[in-house]
Amino acid sequence: MKTAYTCFCTDVIHDGHLNIINETKKLGRVVVGALSDKTLIRFNKFPTISQEERIKLYRSLEGVDEVVIQDDMMYDDVITLVHPDYVVHGDNWKEGPEKTIRDHVEELVKSYGGEVVDVPYTYNEKVKKIDLQLREKLAMPEYRRKRLRQLLEMTPIVKAMEAHSGLTGLIVEKTVVEHEGKLDQFDAMWISSLCDSTAKGKPDIELVDMTSRFRTIDDITEVTTKPIIFDGDTGGLTEHFVYTVRSLEKMGVSAVIIEDKTGLKKNSLFGTEVEQTQASIEDFSAKIAAGKKAQLTDDFMIIARIESLILERGMEDALNRARAFVKAGADGIMIHSRKKDPAEILEFCDKFRSEDTKTPIVVVPSSFNTITEAELADHGVNIVIYANQLTRSAFPAMQKTAEDILRYHRAKEVDDRLMSIKQIITLIDEL
Ligand code: SPV
Ligand code: MG
Known about the structure:
The protein has helices at about 15-25, 35-45, 50-60, 75-80, 100-110, 125-140, 140-155, 165-175, 195-200, 210-225, 240-250, 280-295, 315-325, 345-355, 375-380, 390-410, 420-425, and strands at about 5-10, 30-35, 65-70, 85-90, 115-120, 160, 175-180, 180-185, 190, 230, 255-260, 260, 275-280, 300-305, 330-335, 360-365, 385. With about 425 residues, the protein is of the alpha/beta class. The protein has 3 domains: about 5-130, HUPs (Rossmann fold, 3-Layer(aba) Sandwich); about 140-385, Phosphoenolpyruvate-binding domains (TIM Barrel, Alpha-Beta Barrel); about 395-425, no CATH class. An 8-stranded parallel beta barrel has the order 6-9-10-11-14-15-16-17, surrounded by 8 helices. It is globular and about 75 Å long. Sulfopyruvate (SPV) binds near residues 364, 366 and 387.
């Protein structure tokens, strides 16, 4: 009897999947691959049920003879394991980022006389509704909030990208690239105080008040599902911070990062060029402890950001603070630097990791941007935040367009670099 293999990456079975099983059954013994959690989050959507539950779900389907785990987007290992005569998939993988995967699978199975079978993709109202329901579920605060902790368990390094509006949120939510046969996407969003303030034409000095920052979160949560790390600046007065923690939890935010500064906060990338005061270890520890006490869910994280390297207070001071803040209840440590060379960041990570193997480390490589995610992960970093690159790429593009229209007294000269009218009007999904 021949073997036919198909890979599922879904939490909910709809007509489309049942059709695939029926078509696969016509070809032989049906082996279904369950995409592992870690592969699923890179490739498709965040799972709403566990890997074990997905396996159980697929096993319960009529017509399925065996379920195996597929632990990579590329089919090499699973094809070696199953040696299928047929690999069956919806024909939607003949286009877009999945095409490379399809072509590679075809090459693999053809080498021993196997075949790829593309089944016409089922897309009816019921299927559409199930997709939307799943998306809505992921967007609910109770699902979104716990996703950062789940990601920290599932992936070697969590990648967060700055968002400051519904539109930038959508870019972080939807951007998927295919590179060397692997698909990749961002895991989380960083609501930067710098970019949120800049978008409003204001300086990054805690001038944009919390109500307005919450409005930004709302705009983003309305149209996305990915977890949010909120830049809480200094956290403000401890008496205020406890309310902020509760509000963020309610909105479904996963983490707040607060920095150990006091008085008028300025952006860290100014370093020692402007006057900035670091909070005492005692005061900042008390703020963290008060925030942890106010928190009602187990999901939410309060991450302490240490400014000792920015303010040139030395490595020992940074490490002392990290120890104290973890003791006060911090769920993670963010260490910041404005040096181009990542050496001091790596030194901190290595030293901190040698005495604390668990507490997540967060870094923001805006200045030390030559280091790769894999190198950071090797030094124990768990979350990397690309804090301002969307804003910094959009601003010069907009400015140049404004200048050129003024220069030429018409818009024709800028047309080549613009998104088409059709694209812009279809950018946002219609319900
Ligand atoms: C931000 O994005 O607002 C940050 C990171 O706090 S940094 O600008 O590097 O201080
Ligand atoms: Mg900030």
